[in-house]
Design brief:
Blueprint: H1 2-29, E1 36-41, H2 49-52, H3 71-80, E2 85-90, H4 96-107, E3 111-117, H5 118-121, H6 128-133, E4 137-141, E5 150-154, E6 158-162, H7 168-172, E7 176-181, H8 184-200, H9 203-218
This protein binds zinc ion.
Zinc ion is lined by residues 47, 49, 60, 62, 64, 66.
Length: 219
């Protein structure tokens, strides 16, 4: 009888220690929950004024529904969360609320770099000119194929990527998706890709290669 009690006791102790070891390992390997969110569009059309004026969230009197969280309001919230940098790589950018968000970040001193497609930067309604006139650094892809990415990285920490162009049609009419994540294994390759494209499409580099050509011809 005593022997059985001892075996059961030792077994329970071993089980308890194993469980504690597992919890310790889990906490050590995963110090905090990594933020992930998936958003689908089209988004319901609601007022998003409170995101731009958080100090007076109930001041808007427009006719749209207020106080409703949507995919678009979540997207705006994530973009506005940037405190140091925003690297944006987007094919088409004509959405005025998204433009307003980028301008607001620029006004707060957030470093912004925008990389876009040269053909779509010139279409009617594109907000790229507005960003440039505000003093935001914009580079257009110089390649012969479309620069078709749609991703943004905030503070080198938070990635937004998916099918969504930054247009009104994409937000309000199309079936689209975005993934918002802090997962380093996903964020880091996008930072690397942005850097690669940013350097590749540096206008100085482009002009330089043109300057060099005649010299090569002479030689
Ligand atoms: Zn409103």
């Amino acid at each position: 009888m005593m022997w059985t009690v001892k075996v059961v006791g030792l077994g329970m102790l071993a089980l308890s220690l194993s469980l504690e070891l597992l919890i310790w390992l889990f906490r050590r390997l995963k110090p905090g929950r990594i933020f992930n969110e998936v958003l689908f569009f089209p988004s319901e059309i609601v007022c998003v004024e409170h995101i731009f004026t958080p100090s007076s969230p109930y001041s808007c009197i427009c006719s749209l529904p207020h106080g409703v969280e949507t995919s678009f309001s979540r997207l705006l919230h994530h973009i506005m969360s940037a405190s140091n940098s925003l690297d944006l790589c987007v094919f088409a950018f004509s959405n005025m609320d998204l433009c307003r968000a980028v301008l607001a970040l620029h006004g707060k001193g957030v470093t912004i770099r925008v990389l876009t497609d040269k053909d779509y930067a010139a279409i009617t309604g594109s907000q790229i000119g507005v960003l440039r006139r505000a003093g935001i650094c914009v580079r257009c892809d110089v390649g012969s194929v479309y620069m078709h990415h749609k991703f943004a990285v905030m503070d080198g920490r938070l990635l937004i990527t998916g099918s969504l162009n930054w247009t009104l049609t994409a937000v309000q009419s199309n079936t689209e998706n975005i993934v918002v994540t802090e997962e380093p294994d996903l964020v880091q390759p996008f930072i690397k890709e942005f850097h690669r494209l940013w350097v590749h499409n540096d206008p100085a580099r482009f002009h330089q290669s043109h300057d060099i050509k005649p010299a090569h011809v002479i030689v």
